[in-house]
Amino acid sequence: MVSERTYGEIPGYPPGSTFKNRDELAESGVHRPNQAGICGGKDGGESIVVSGGYVDDEDYGTELVCTGQGGNDPATKRQIADQELTRGNLGPARSQIDGNPVRVIRGANGDPKYSPSLACDTTVFSGLSTTGLTLARTATKSGDTAS
Description:
Order of helices and strands: EHEEEEHEE
Strand content: 15-25%
Helix content: 10-25%
Strand order of the largest sheet: 1-7-6-3-2
Structural class: alpha+beta
């Protein structure tokens, strides 16, 4: 059974909050899964973690181009299969349609311009995405451009 989704900020954890590890992050409720990068499902997505797990992700600070969940080669971390709007991938797309904010958390292995230092080994709650910005390209087909 899926627990009820919480969109937006979690009381007591404003943007800029730091966490020592994924366990602490999960306990806070800012991003509940200990391993998955997307917290969500067919009813919506409440948070994503950007931590360098997918080399095809692009982080521009205020905009993220996320490859989503699955379809990558574990050895190269590159996408080798098209994404499907199922499981976790469906969550951010549903939130975009419904206008629900998605919490963005950056781990130390993400783009060094926007992520915490590897020396700190923390994760940082960077803030909320705005509708159609952070996850605007989640559901584009290969070769398509999102507007």
